[in-house]
Amino acid sequence: MDNQPAKSKNHFLGSGWGFPVTFVAGYNKLHITENEENINDSIAIILQTRQGERFLNPFFGAGVQKFFLKMDDTLKGEISDAVKTSLMLYEPRIKVLEVKIEYSDNYNGLVEIMISYLYNQTNTRHNYVFPFHIKEGTNLVK
Description:
By secondary structure, the chain is an alpha+beta fold. Helices cover 23% and strands 29% of the residues. The longest helix has 18 residues.
């Protein structure tokens, strides 16, 4: 028998720093995510990063923050294309099957981005919902 510790059946999905970066209380170490949680963290990072924000990789990110426009079908298509393209370029562990955009709250500019994807190595289907605000929040009082 093999005396090595059992590896996760999904070890190919990877592991990395959790997002947002946090520490494990009392252990003085970073919170590490693995497998599905790590992929969802990666998707969140890609969707929240503005293009040009990373100095050494200025094209990284979906750049969905630039869509401060009228909430219509054209906007849905632009956001969907940006999400598909950025995930294809920056998350090689998955294949995006579908991106659906819904306007959850027109008054406050809340857009839900629903992503259906497959893990490349197992063809396991997963979904991720990302809430995105078209209108940036502010605490200025008029």
